[in-house]
Amino acid sequence: MAENKKVSSVSFFNSRLTSVISISLVLFLLGLILLIGMLGNKLSVYVKENLSFSIVLKDNQKETEIKKMQKSLDALPFIKSTEYISKEQAAKELEEELGENPETFLGFNPLQASIEVKLHSEYANPDSLQVIEKKIRNYTSVSELLYRNMMEMVHNNMKRLGLILLTLAAVLMIISFVLISNTIRLLIYSKRFLIHTMKLVGATSGFIRRPFVKYNIVSGIFASILAILMLTGALYYLQNELKGFIQILDMQTLLLVYVAVFALGIVLSVIATIFAVNKYLRMGVDKLYYI
What is the mean pLDDT of the chain? Predict the structure, then answer.
């Protein structure tokens, strides 16, 4: 008797653990999508303002003329920052990338001095760039601009990313409900005859559902906490890998995502439980043997 009770307790623990882990993984993915969606605008601003394009300068430009031009560029409303890169600095950077200085085998420095420009995010789009290009080309020191393909590609990709995230969130919400529903249905499956017996003795549907709902609310809470811990671990990893990531992440957004994950863990578990129990409540006794 004691051994049967022990086996039953182990089976109960394993089924709950499986249920909690399954639900927490789904909630973790939902949390990531929510976080990316809520940070979407900030992420777009961060990416656009950290993109730069190069104004390649003509050879033999005086330092004073370049500094004057850079100061004039800094005063323009659409420019966030500028950085002057001399021919020597450009050669040094190329040497770090290639492992060899171009001057050693060419006998001269083939690179040109340039000014790296970062724009404010609202101007980092194809339409604004056409106007900006015309203004910058008016400077007599400018040889050429290197930017168009990269800027347009990023702008188009950010628009695609927003649509993909919205679609992914909708699909993932449906998948998460199905997975949670199936997980809970498997748990309730072993109790289907108990549900039928309670119906026979006159128990109401609400009375029958109540213990299952309470059980799965607790599972949903544990799953939500586990999902929040996994999200925190993922954010810690991203913070270490992407140094600028922490700049776009604020505590208010993070708390909103955590609250949403916690609430979804409970709400989805309750809804899935109600659907699962109702399925067995509607079944006749004959069908209970064949499912």
Answer: 77
Closest CA to 221 of 151, 270, 158, 156: 270
CA-to-CA distance for 38 and 50, rounded, in angstroms?
Answer: 20
- State the amino acid at position 139 in one-letter form: Y
- Cα 90 off chain centre by: 35
* Distance of alpha carbon 194 from the chain centroid: 43
**Pick from 39, 81, 79: nearest CA to 246:** 39
The predicted-structure confidence for 212-256, as pLDDT tens digits, reads as follows 888 888 888 998 999 999 998 888 887 776 665 666 677 888 888
Average pLDDT, integer, range 196-218: 84
Distance CA 187, CA 281 (A): 15
Coil vs helix vs strand at 118: strand
Instruction: Enumerate the H helices of the chain as residue ranges.
Output: 2-38, 40-49, 63-74, 87-98, 102-106, 126-136, 148-189, 192-200, 205-241, 245-248, 251-282, 285-288
| Joined tokens for residue 229 | 């811990």
Closest by CA to 80, choosing from 139, 149, 143, 128, is 128
Query: In this structure, what is the dihedral angle of CA atoms 268, 271, 277, 278, given to the nearest 10 degrees?
Result: -150
Quick: pLDDT tens for 143-198: 887 765 566 666 666 667 767 777 877 777 777 677 777 777 777 777 777 887 88
N-terminal to C-terminal alpha carbon distance within the chain: 29
Q: Is 279 exposed, middle or buried (0-12, 13-18, 19+ CB in 10 A)?
A: middle
Would residue 237 be called left, alpha or beta, if left means φ above 0 and alpha means ψ between -120 and 50 degrees?
Answer: alpha
- Cα 35 to chain centroid distance, Å, stands at 6
The values of phi and psi at residue 68, to 5°, are -65, -45
